[in-house]
Fold this protein.
Amino acid sequence: MKIVWYYTNNMNKAVITLKEYQGFQKAYDFFNTELFAGGLPQVLVTLQRHANSRGYFSPQRFKGRVERTSVHELALNPDTFMGRTDAMILSTLVHEMCHVWQETYGTPSRRGYHNREWAQKMREVGLQPTTTGKEGGAETGQAVTHYILPEGRYETAYAKLAASGLQLNWQSLPAMGQGRGKNSSKRKFTCPECGQNAWAKPGARLICGQCYQKDRADLSLMIPQS
């Protein structure tokens, strides 16, 4: 398949990087004020293609080259923007902002784990944590997503932000060959701790050899990916 790009005059003149990242910065500042009483520190928002994740928070990830300081990273995965609305994408931003809040004011668990304190903050800002992405899923664990609570604080705040004219402009281009049939006899499994992948029959229960702990074997189970 041959891909042809069409550029408008406006696109040629636009400062694309500045425009898109300013949008994420505006969203961060807006939600910081509306949902966190302006109490979160500034972070470096990045776009990262991190496998099997819509976003992540990494504390003290960047060190200043001029100023003697360090800052947190809040990353969003543009590969997961396809098929999702701006409200859904920016809810991931707020999901990670809850991690920023916990790093600043709370007690985070081990890296990547979503604990009860974090889950409570998520509900407070209008997002329901769930391991399944649906009602009834566990609120805590290594791999936890969320859904937007109807008439909750996030939904109300996002409506105000959208009314100001903010919108996201870019997402990843679908990979070549995407959409072709997959071999249903095998399924991809990912370790939630180190990200290592393996392929096995859909019903398999795989343990990551790298992260395995005898007394906590349940935490080393690899997660099946859809």
Summary: The mean pLDDT is 86. The helical segments are 9-13, 16-36, 86-105, 116-125, 153-163.
